[in-house]
Fold these 2 entries.
Entry 1:
Amino acid sequence: MDLSPHLPSSGRALVVAAAVVDDLRTPTRLLAARRTGPSVLAGGWELPGGKVELDETPLEALHRELREELGVVVEVGPPVDGPLPGRSWLLGERYEMLVWLAVVVEGEPAAIEDHDEVRWLGAGHLFDVAWLPADLPIVERLEARFGAS
Ligand code: DCM
């Protein structure tokens, strides 16, 4: 029996993140969050999310992280498929990440935990922040979905 159905077969740990947008069908704004740590990542902007715990599914982890970090309840939309088996994105050597589009259904995103700033980026401004290297190709993939802001 597979006791860890949510873990990637690569041996890397699984991280989840949300591309929080204003509208799932025709997004015009994307939410970016600036990390406070660890020091190698501090100041870099990311799609908010975090590690999947052993006792939760990836989507449970996504809802938990967004509640804890940003104080919001989200509706999760379609996945943003990455190039790895299982459609995840590579995050360095130790992690891989699953990403979904999401919209806020309750609350206003705020930098509650792990971030010191959150910012909505309009369609023409998706690259105005210093994205973490691992997040950059994901934002490039997302860009095609954006309409005029
Ligand atoms: N990470 C990332 N991009 C994201 C979310 C996370 O590169 N959008 C990385 C940072 C950490 C690891 O994943 O190395 C685990 O994330 P956390 O520390 O938020 O649990």
Entry 2:
Amino acid sequence: MKEYAICIVGGGSRYTPDMLAMLCNQKERFPLRKIVLYDNENERQDVVGAYAEILFKEYYPELKELVYTTDPDTAFSDIDFALMQIRAGRLNMREQDEKIAIKHGCLGQETCGAGGFAYGMRSIPAVVEIIKQIREKSPECWILNYSNPAAIVAEATNRIYSDDKRIINICDMPIAIMDMYAAVLGKKRKDLEPKYFGLNHFGWFTNIYDRETGEDYLPRLKEILKTPVDVQTEPLFQEPSWKATFKFMSTMIQDYDEYLPNTYLQYYLYPRKMFEKQNSDYTRANEVMDGNEKETYERMETIIALGKIKGTEFAITEDVGCHAEYIVDLATALANNTKEVFLLMTENKGIIENLDRHMMVEVPCRVGSSGVEPLVVGTVPTFYKGLIEQQYAYEKLTVDAYLEGSKKKAMQALVLNRTVVNTDTAIALLEDLIKANKEYWRELK
Ligand code: G6P
Ligand code: MN
């Protein structure tokens, strides 16, 4: 079996340690010869790198090379896959995004609304620059991008690198939701095959088929999920805000009983309710900084001091990072031509007949060594079409605002967002966001 070389871009991320442990667990079906960790921050990269050395010595002795670096030329040479998970401006800027939006009476969220807009304007140049650097060194490698806000990043990469068919934009939320469906049905996620349409963080499941029998579980799931469920699928979702999000699904299903919604639709369909739930002094960024981010780094520091993992409380279990397995599934599909179906962001081109051909939709796609082949959806009903078109116009105008440096388009984008709406609010928000993002945004005129 061929052995691959991969680079994790954003190697200092709190997601990296579990991802690395997961790669150890997956070495039979996705064997690696080289793992590169790349980050632009030395201090964080060194911690994850030192942890990785211990991890691989014990759990991946077959691995020939571990590199951790802040030099892009070193990082991107001789790689087959780049897994991109960067956060431009880190959690400090996420906190700003959320708090500035709340200050203006709007929802403060990482990928939705004003927060997602601000993050998008930071992410686009960062992602675009990294792709350019990757292509200089590894013109053929697959770039699996899951940097947020994925909808905007996907729109930007599709416009800027329109001929590059080896950039694939993916989000794990549909997978996490399907893990939950599988749990309530007493099945495994891979027993299920979804039909789905929409945009990233803005879509609906229309069918959930049993891969074997062909039974559609959608009616049963709707019945079950009308009552709030307590998900136990992974540690992240045990956090109070995620628990609340999964529970809120029941309200959405009661109010809209046609399809099953992506969790993120709560922000667009109930912006006032979600706004009222927020704490302007302590947002999700604060929760993550004080919680998962801190714990993950402390755990790595402890392991580095111990010098070992095996035989300690940190020993790798079979299910560590199992949720992130989807990324290996995707890489394996590309490498081994498995033709498995994934929900991916891709240019519409008629897949959803009654929507713009250039829209970056999120739909089921068959994946093999020649790339991504979207599967036909057909037409979508007026209500969904209206919502999607408005949201896509927001996403497109955000990318236009970036490409043209246009303040007018930035304002128009915000007005089109269902969590902002008012023109005066959009104008005031934009002024504050420009000030806060001086270091990151291109100038808007
Ligand atoms: C889901 C979404 C991601 C998001 C992540 C973490 O997996 O698909 O886009 O970044 O949740 O969100 P959090 O608020 O926990 O940082
Ligand atoms: Mn996502």
